[in-house]
């Protein structure tokens, strides 16, 4: 079997554009991957076009060899653009191999250890402003089936937080905790906003609400700062969505910088690299909870990892999405009464594309400005759930 072409499709998804990668073989098998890189879609498309020149003619079933040689031969290594391009190719190659054998990707990773994973919702708070708005949105989301809620309550704070700002944050978290009770897990997102002193201050203040973690409390490019925060924080610390490959995770694990690692399958190296990172995390008894705010293919790949990896703890997923998400693929996710998502058992990644529906939503520029855009305007006004509700059994 040989690769004959690699191409990309781009789909407007409100705050970003999904980048879907198709790897076509001479035997007619098409593997799919995702290369969504918020605000940098055209850059990653260019990297994938260069990648295509290197892999056409190669055997797609030799996944390790193809990825090793391509990564070795590129002079520039690491970073979001190159790693996202490589991750999407690797994902598509797994899809091809599993389709060729007629099995789910998880079967090739060692087989399933479970048939569902615990999920937490992101994006549930869109357009909430007051604590009462957040409480009402949290209640609706829990009523829809979720038992975990994540959000960033820090507006656009930059490195520091004032007493007045802290009071607003605490009022918001308190409103959500009071609305949903103690049985619902809360995850507090920092988006890398704070310096060491203020991150520690925040961690000590939010501990009263018993969050599962404080995510990315400081910028992702200073491991010393993260180590200092984790040592002083009464709340578990999570990080890793902006780290790339084992080189990004091994030092953090060695220095006990985190309680949970959050590699993204579309950025950190793909399926096999996440499996390797999960093994590194397991040796330190650190939870494995991949970052996953993207589209159907990212979710499908992450779910296959959830099936196979024993230390997989949580699946991040958007509570709602653009109304055309169910139209562009055959993705049909089941959310159980216990707040778990059932792992699909289709062939490969289990995703098929609807090219006509994709064509109806072409690329639309969505610049990402973390410290200018309102963090609570995260879903469109016509947002919809894309889950089927199922029983717990």
From TrEMBL:
Superkingdom of this protein's organism: Bacteria
Keyword Lyase included in the entry's annotation: yes
Occurrences of domain Mandelate racemase/muconate lactonizing enzyme C-terminal (ranges): 131-236
UniProt-listed CDD domains: MR_like (cd03316)
UniProt entry keywords in alphabetical sequence: Lyase
SUPFAM superfamilies reported for this sequence: Enolase C-terminal domain-like, Enolase N-terminal domain-like
Record's protein name: Dehydratase
Taxonomic lineage: Bacteria, Bacillati, Actinomycetota, Actinomycetes, Micromonosporales
């Amino acid at each position: 079997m040989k690769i004959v072409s690699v191409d990309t499709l781009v789909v407007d998804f409100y705050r970003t554009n999904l980048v879907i990668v198709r790897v076509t073989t001479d035997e007619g098998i098409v593997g799919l991957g995702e290369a969504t890189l918020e605000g940098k879609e055209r850059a990653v498309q260019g990297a994938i076009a260069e990648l295509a020149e290197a892999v056409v003619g190669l055997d797609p079933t030799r996944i390790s060899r193809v990825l090793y040689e391509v990564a070795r031969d590129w002079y520039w290594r690491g970073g979001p653009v190159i790693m996202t391009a490589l991750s999407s190719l690797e994902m598509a190659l797994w899809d091809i191999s599993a389709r060729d054998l007629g099995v789910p990707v998880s079967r090739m990773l060692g087989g399933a250890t479970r048939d569902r994973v615990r999920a937490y919702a992101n994006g549930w708070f869109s357009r909430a402003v007051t604590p009462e708005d957040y409480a009402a949105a949290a209640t609706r989301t829990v009523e829809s089936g979720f038992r975990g809620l994540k959000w960033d309550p820090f507006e656009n704070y930059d490195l520091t937080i004032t007493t007045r700002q802290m009071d607003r944050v605490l009022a918001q978290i308190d409103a959500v905790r009071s609305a949903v009770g103690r049985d619902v897990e809360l995850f507090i997102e920092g988006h890398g906003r704070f310096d060491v002193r203020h991150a520690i201050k925040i961690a000590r203040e939010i501990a009263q609400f018993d969050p599962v973690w404080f995510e990315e409390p400081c910028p992702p490019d200073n491991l010393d700062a993260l180590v200092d925060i984790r040592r002083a924080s009464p709340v578990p610390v999570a990080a890793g969505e902006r780290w790339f490959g084992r080189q990004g995770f091994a030092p953090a694990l060695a220095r006990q910088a985190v309680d949970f690692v959050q590699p993204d399958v579309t950025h950190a190296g793909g399926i096999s690299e996440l499996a390797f990172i999960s093994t590194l995390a397991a040796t330190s008894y650190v939870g494995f909870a991949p970052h996953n705010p993207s589209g159907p293919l990212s979710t499908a790949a992450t779910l296959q990892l959830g099936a196979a990896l024993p230390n997989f703890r949580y699946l991040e997923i958007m509570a709602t999405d653009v109304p055309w998400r169910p139209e562009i693929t055959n993705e049909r996710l089941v959310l159980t009464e216990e707040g778990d998502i059932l792992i699909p058992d289709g062939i490969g990644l289990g995703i098929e594309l609807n090219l006509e529906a994709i064509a109806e939503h072409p690329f639309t520029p969505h610049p990402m400005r973390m410290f200018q855009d309102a963090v609570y305007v995260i879903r469109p006004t016509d947002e919809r759930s894309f889950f089927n509700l199922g029983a717990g059994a």
